[in-house]
Amino acid sequence: MTSSQTSKKQDLPPTAWAVLGLLSFPGERTGYELKKWADSSLRFFYWSPAISQIYAELRRLEELGYAASTRSGPEEARAKRRYVITDAGREALAGWAGDTAEAGPPVLKHGLLLRIWLGHLSEPRELRAMVTEHLERTRDELAAVREAMEHAADVREWAFPTLALRWSERQHLAELELAEALLADLEQAGARAGTRAGDGTRATAQAGEATLAEPAERERQADGDAPTPG
Predict the structure, then answer these.
(1) pTM score of the predicted model
(2) pLDDT, tens digit (0-9, with 9 covering 90-100), for 123-134
(3) At what angle do helices 87-97 and 14-23 cross, to 10 degrees?
(4) Whose CA, among 42, 99, 193, 194, lies 20 to 30 Å from 148?
(5) How far apart are CA 140 and CA 119, in angstroms?
(6) Which helix (H) or strand (E) holds 5?
(7) What would the mean pLDDT of 2-9 be, rounded to a whole number?
(8) Are 145 and 169 in contact (CB under 8 A)?
(9) What whole-number distance in Å separates Cα of residue 130 and Cα of residue 112?
């Protein structure tokens, strides 16, 4: 391997390794087939690259000598390019997969929770509707995970992908439990807000207390201390 290839190897993004990982299973596959497999496996526990990303990474992997491709002949109505992993690619992938120091912690980016965090800008019924929709979507995803598990169950080469899918099944079940608890929390928060809104006397008293607050306290409130330490 040349020094240029070594440098590129070090700079490979996770998407490249994911695409190479899809190629590490037996058989030749087109970019479209790799995308379909990513949609039915990787997306349940990592993410699914866009088809444009897959083709970009395939070109990069070929340049590094980690993948090779062949173009279909005239016997096919539509020409296709099929890709396979090379020995050098398999060796590099095994080294990357075995480097646990580079795995890093899991990163959670929960779009729904970001909106719940900004719940003071929404109506309670809107927040509850969001969570209800999330529950329905998660149930659909859980069904898709289980379908993928069933499809892979009897294929010996997919034993480890099946373990990842089984983890994803548990994760989706936990997500359902968390969302149900969040819905209950929202109901309680809405009830408390309704109680406060209905108590005009208490609201008036609180407004008076705020007016009489010590200057230092008023300054602290104006500065907008964060609701959590840090």
Answers:
(1) 0.75
(2) 999 999 999 999
(3) 120
(4) 99
(5) 26
(6) helix 3-10
(7) 49
(8) yes
(9) 7
